[in-house]
Write a structure and sequence with these properties.
Layout: H1 2-15, H2 23-26, E1 29-32, E2 34-36, E3 45-47, E4 53-57, E5 64-71, E6 80-86, E7 96-100, E8 107-113, E9 119-123, E10 129-131, E11 135-140, H3 143-157, H4 169-179, H5 185-195, H6 206-212, H7 218-227, E12 234-240, H8 245-256, E13 263-269, H9 275-287, E14 291-295, H10 301-311, E15 317-320, E16 326-327, H11 331-341, E17 347-355, E18 361-365, H12 372-377, E19 385-388, H13 389-394, H14 406-415, E20 423-434, H15 448-461, E21 469-472, E22 479-482, E23 492-498, H16 502-514, E24 521-527, H17 533-542, E25 548-552, H18 559-569, E26 574-578, E27 582-584, H19 589-597, E28 602-610, E29 616-618, E30 621-623, E31 629-631, E32 651-652, E33 660-664, H20 665-670, H21 684-694, E34 698-709, H22 721-738
Parallel strand pairs: 12-13, 12-15, 13-14, 17-20, 23-24, 23-26, 24-25, 28-34
Antiparallel strand pairs: 1-4, 2-3, 3-10, 4-9, 5-8, 5-11, 6-7, 6-9, 15-19, 16-20, 17-18, 17-19, 21-22, 26-33, 27-34, 28-29, 28-33, 30-31, 32-34
């Protein structure tokens, strides 16, 4: 009892620090699984079980809608808070709402408090771990305010309202309620609004997500097979050396049980010392004539063994399978379907996951479409990889000396010179990678020789570029291709729109001038009607530096127009869009961005931006999040690996933020610059990047150009009705201009969420 009293005193003291927090929060009492954290902890409380709970009586004035703010700092990597209402029947999931926790900031959402609510229960996190309850605040919201917010969120985030204007939502709700004869429009509204806050984590709920997915029926499989014009023969190559017999049998049977019948299994036994291996392989070969086995007399390691299997392959395409992994039952059927839809395809790859020793699936890798920069950084294609047999033989098959990264070496050589139309990605998990002690599926650092082999493979793949170097990445089996600067480094014009705010502008410009080791650049301060004497004085002083010019823009604020004006005045061959609240961190930042921006095939180049608290503000733009676009890995820790190490790797993105963006001036002019007519404030950078991509260039993001970004400090947040209306109007324009392009991001994956920015699973 003493623990509960102490916890409550600490909680009340914390909540009452802010006069904005209402008594309903301060009255919370610990109900279950909550204790005080240790003095050494950064947090005040600890959840000792997966379901910590607080409870309080309802002290609100009335029922109805409230804007509820929640801030629960926690050391849990993925967590949600939940609020429950007791109307006399106890606490139930049917009468609850969820708050996906955001790193370092408030979660705000509208909540409808039912009539007759007696008590609240608040679950701050849904797992064990340390936490603090920094805020739980209720503010009553009139329906006129609440409905506008709810309708806009449904239009942005729920597929049932895609393409609608917010004013059309009520009619759509009535239509949906009629379809569900047992539901009212209010019930549908509540259900769909709640779904936009659904939080699914790929590390927590993957098997539940799998169970909820629709599977092809026998009738659908037959219909698909019957419709195929082409039925390619697949040769599945399996190099074998002393595997666990049970797992070897499961690997072979995963091919035997394929729902697509036109396959050949080519097994090369690489002189296994376990005699049981030979017996098992011969037994399976006698069972099915499609299984062919070659027994090597001398162990040659995986590349030579794979070539032995390749020698007996008769198929149109080669598929790779490790001796203890498994193919999904429909794997080859999906590939055959893709080849019928893309008859010119030469390389097909799928998503994958892992299997533990008990057959439990976990750690799915939902991959992007063709992403050449990412492939240099890691072998993201991996499994399931299916290659045209003729081209594999043309490039010489597998190479000795690259063991451990022989697949990475193969795909780099296979894809060299291929147009992306010949490469097809299937966003389905078709391969299960066995995770065992000592395997690279368990941990990439298990086989350190694989890193050196991969380094050699990537180095050879870019060896035709004079001056290029390849370095090991910060994570095993990852790499950084460091391109050379042009022999005559081009001038870069850094455009900085600003109005007053010398306390923001000065640190930005001073950092650019003192913390940039690239010598050939100019800073163009684009002054938008500044009147502050200190700001004007600073601009006069700093313009004495020959690298700085101050240009006046005496018109109402229009971010796109100001930058277009600056680009016209720029002397540089490369244009840099830089917000006035950005401060570079590493002196090499501009060199790194120019190395990429100068490449003829590259369009926009983006940087890695942090909030002042060292959480990520920007790591590339993901299309579709929030109805238009969102920032990849937002609020992750500065040093986090991110989704499959992507926070450490250069990779192609559909768009990057205009807060720190480089692009060659001819490309800027070619696509017409920023859209000053329709996108004066928001989304102009996303629109610009999409125009650049549409023109045939590849955009990319690099983690090796780092800066702090005090986002929206100078302009302010969109927190007035006028600003929100303007923002919503620009979002509507983007959806009209780009249509489905906004919801099919080739640098992302359709199985991942468009609600959150954390690469969690997309709710089904």
């Amino acid at each position: 009892m003493r623990v509960r009293q102490v916890v409550r005193k600490v909680l009340v003291a914390l909540l009452n620090r802010s006069p904005l927090v209402r008594n309903v929060a301060a009255d919370l009492e610990p109900l279950a699984q909550v204790e005080l954290a240790s003095i050494a902890s950064n947090h005040h409380l600890v959840a000792v079980g997966p379901d910590p709970q607080f409870i309080t009586r309802n002290r609100l004035m009335k029922s109805g809608f409230y804007m509820v703010e929640v801030n629960v700092p926690t050391n849990a990597t993925s967590a949600v808070a939940k609020l429950y209402f007791d109307t006399g029947e106890g606490f139930t999931e049917a009468c609850s709402c969820v708050f996906p926790l955001k790193r370092g900031r408030l979660t705000k959402r509208l909540v409808k408090v039912p009539k007759g609510t007696r008590r609240f229960r608040f679950d701050p996190i849904d797992c064990t771990g340390e936490f603090s309850l920094a805020r739980l605040r209720f503010a009553w919201a009139p329906w006129r305010f609440a409905s506008k917010r709810i309708y806009q969120r449904l239009v942005n985030l729920h597929p049932a309202y895609k393409g609608l204007k917010p004013s059309k939502v009520p009619a759509r709700l009535e239509e949906l309620a009629r379809e569900k004869s047992t539901a009212s429009s209010d019930d549908v509204l509540s259900q769909h609004y709640e779904q936009t806050f659904a939080k699914t984590s790929s590390t927590l709920d993957y098997n539940e997500w799998l169970a909820a997915r629709d599977q092809m029926s026998k009738m659908e499989r037959k219909a698909l097979l019957d419709s195929m014009v082409k039925r390619p023969l697949f040769s599945v190559l399996v190099p074998v050396y002393n595997p666990t017999i049970a797992f070897l049998e499961l690997a072979i049977e995963s091919v035997l049980y394929q729902t697509y019948p036109n396959w050949q299994l080519c097994i090369a036994n690489d002189a296994s010392t376990d005699p049981e291996v030979r017996r098992v392989l011969d037994d399976y070969a006698a069972l099915d004539t499609r299984i062919n086995v070659v027994h090597r007399s001398v162990n040659g390691h995986i590349s030579i063994a794979s070539n032995s299997a390749l020698e007996i392959a008769e198929g149109d395409f080669i598929s790779l399978l490790d001796h203890d992994d498994e193919l999904a039952a429909d794997a080859l059927l999906w590939v055959a379907k893709a080849l019928n839809e893309h008859p010119d395809a030469l390389l097909v790859y799928s998503d994958e996951d892992k299997l533990d020793e008990f057959g439990q699936r976990f750690d799915p890798h939902f991959k992007p479409d063709w992403n050449p920069e990412l492939l240099f950084g890691q072998n993201y294609i991996s499994h399931l990889g299916v290659y045209q047999t003729e081209r594999i033989r043309q490039i010489g098959g597998f190479r000795e000396g690259f063991e451990g990264s022989q697949d990475h070496d193969l795909v780099l050589r296979f894809a060299n010179g291929l147009d992306e139309r010949y490469i097809v990605h299937i966003p389905e998990v078709l391969y299960h990678w066995r995770s065992l002690e000592g395997s690279t599926a368990r941990a990439s650092g298990e086989k350190l020789y694989t890193t050196q082999a991969g380094l050699n493979a990537v180095s050879e793949a870019v060896s035709n570029i004079p001056g290029v170097s390849v370095l090991e990445g910060p994570v095993p089996n990852t790499y950084r291709v460091k391109y050379p600067l042009p022999e005559m480094p081009p001038m870069v014009s850094l455009l900085i729109p600003t109005r007053d705010g010398v306390d923001i502008l000065k640190p930005c410009v001073d950092a650019l001038l003192s913390r940039t080791d690239y010598s050939n650049f100019e800073v163009l301060i684009l002054d938008n009607q500044s009147s502050c004497e200190q700001t004007l004085q600073y601009m006069a002083e700093v313009s004495e530096d020959p690298r700085v010019r101050v240009l006046r823009w005496d018109f109402p604020f229009n971010y796109s127009a100001i930058n277009n004006f600056g680009a016209e005045q720029a002397r540089g061959e490369i244009i840099g869009l830089v917000n006035n609240d950005v401060e570079p961190i590493n002196a090499d930042w501009l060199c790194e961005m120019v190395r990429h921006a100068a490449r003829p095939e590259i369009g926009c180049v983006g940087a890695k931006l942090y909030y002042p608290n060292n959480t990520i503000q920007h790591a590339g733009v993901v299309l579709g999040i929030g109805g238009v676009a969102g920032h990849s890995h937002k609020y992750f820790d500065r040093y986090a690996d991110g989704y499959f190490s992507r926070l450490h790797l250069v990779h192609n993105m559909s768009a990057v933020t205009g807060a720190c963006l480089l692009v060659r001036k001819p490309v800027f002019v070619e696509v017409g610059g920023l859209d000053e007519d329709n996108l004066a404030i928001a989304f102009n950078d996303v629109d610009f990047c999409l125009k650049v991509r549409e023109a045939g260039y590849r955009n990319l993001w690099t983690p090796f150009a780092e800066a702090y970004h005090h986002e929206s400090v100078s302009r302010g947040a969109d927190d007035t009705p006028e600003k929100r209306d303007r923002h919503n109007g620009e979002a509507d324009y983007m959806r009209k201009r780009w249509g489905d392009v906004l919801f099919i991001d080739p640098a992302y994956n359709s199985n991942l969420t468009l609600i959150h920015e954390d690469f969690s699973l997309r709710p089904l």
